[in-house]
Design a protein that fits this description.
Elements (H helix, E strand, L loop, with lengths): L1 E2 L5 E2 L1 H12 L5 H8 L3 H13 L19 E9 L4 H12 L4 E6 L6 E7 L2 H13 L4 E8 L13
Antiparallel strand pairs: 1-2, 3-5, 3-6, 4-5
Helix pairs in contact: 1-2, 2-3
Length: 159
């Protein structure tokens, strides 16, 4: 058994469950139980405990960006003029409200933030850049990288 950061003990069955739901979160409890070689009631209890303890944060569907009109991926480095805690929090709140921002990381060293952005095209990126970066007085530098090919995309965490 191994402790995670929340104090939850993860045993081999928990790991099998976590690996299975990372592959397919739409499995029914009976399908999951058969896959991980556990009884359905045990599996249900374990999944509930993993959710309640925060090990499983949420269950989502992964979409094909190009099939839903969001074909352009941008990785954006942001440096702020002022890095006081309230300014960092203010910027995080600003980008959290924008649906095109899929991920936001506060990083060190280097820029203050790295964002992963998914938009339809360059005009949509330009609108986002104006909305979030140009109109924001505390943004000093923006450096954008545009994906020309995605060779790997995983959400799986090794457990």
């Amino acid at each position: 058994m191994k402790n995670d950061d929340s104090g939850t003990l993860l045993d081999e069955l928990d790991r099998r469950i976590l690996n299975a739901v990372q592959d397919d979160a739409s499995l029914t409890n009976i399908e999951l139980a058969a896959l991980v070689h556990a009884s359905a009631p045990t599996c249900l209890r374990r999944v509930k405990r993993l959710i309640d303890s925060g090990v499983i944060e949420r269950q989502v569907a992964l979409l094909a960006p190009q099939k839903v009109g969001a074909a352009l991926t941008a990785i954006v480095e942001i440096t702020l003029d002022h890095q006081a805690a309230e300014k960092l929090t203010e910027f995080e709140a600003l980008v959290a409200q924008d649906a095109a921002v899929l991920q936001c990381y506060r990083v060190s060293p280097g820029p203050d933030f790295v964002l992963v952005v998914q938009v339809a095209d360059m005009p949509a990126y330009h609108a986002l850049a104006h909305r979030l970066f140009a109109a924001h007085a505390n943004v000093r530098n923006v450096r954008s990288f545009f994906s020309i090919h995605r060779s790997k995309f995983e959400t799986r965490i090794a457990v």
